[in-house]
Amino acid sequence: MPATTMKKLDRPYERMVQMIRFEGEKDFLQPPAELWAKLSDARFLVQCLPDVESVPEAEADRARMVLRPGFSFARGTLETTLCIVDALAPVSARYIIANKGIGTSADVEATIALTPQGAGTRIHWTVEIKALGGLLKMVPSGLVRGAAQKVANDAWSAVEAKLNTPPMNS
User: Fold this and answer.
1) Strand 20-28 with 52-58, pairing
2) Between 8 and 150, residue with greater pLDDT
3) pTM value?
4) Where are the domains of the chain?
5) Could you read off the pLDDT of 27-45 as tens digits, one per residue?
6) For residue 22, what are the β-bridge partners?
7) Average pLDDT in the 128-136 region?
8) CB-based burial of residue 99 (10 Å sphere; 0-12 exposed, 13-18 middle, 19+ buried)?
């Protein structure tokens, strides 16, 4: 699939970057409706994202968080906003993720498509890094892709672990 050039008009300090896109599939034991209910809830998702330091705001369709990524090219903290848009129960959702740090920014879009797979669900997911700003635009795209792929894999592993952990009795 060819890469597309994107330009953000609201951040003039960003140069046009080649869009970075990757995708994958993951199978879950839960049926689509149950899984979609979790994956369309930002309050659940923030519990599954790696490197979250704090969550000052969390609602069903939006969350703000502070991340401290463990990558050598992105030290410090990132203020991140996750918005769930175009959610169509129980088959798909789209996420818009905006990251801002000191001298850095990144705009990401992710989508999921759920299909029944036996008694469970298969998710096809895509992640597109739409824009990089500040110091991140100087990082080689292969390094950005590898770091983003690791975050996605870690998040899916955390989602799976959280879904398969029985709730604690109070």
Assistant:
1) unpaired
2) 150
3) 0.83
4) 19-162
5) 999 999 999 999 999 999 9
6) 127
7) 88
8) buried
Report residue 94: phi and psi, to 5°.
Answer: -125, 140
Pairing of strands 5-6, 17-18: antiparallel
Contacts 24+ apart (CB under 8 A), 72-78: 73/135, 73/136, 73/139, 73/143, 73/147, 74/101, 74/104, 74/136, 74/147, 76/101, 76/102, 77/53, 77/101, 78/104
CB 128 within 8 A of CB 148: no
pLDDT, tens only, 6-28: 444 454 444 445 688 999 999 99
Fold exhibited by the domain 19-162: Alpha-D-Glucose-1,6-Bisphosphate; Chain A, domain 4 (3.30.530)
Of the chain, the end-to-end C-alpha distance in Å amounts to 50
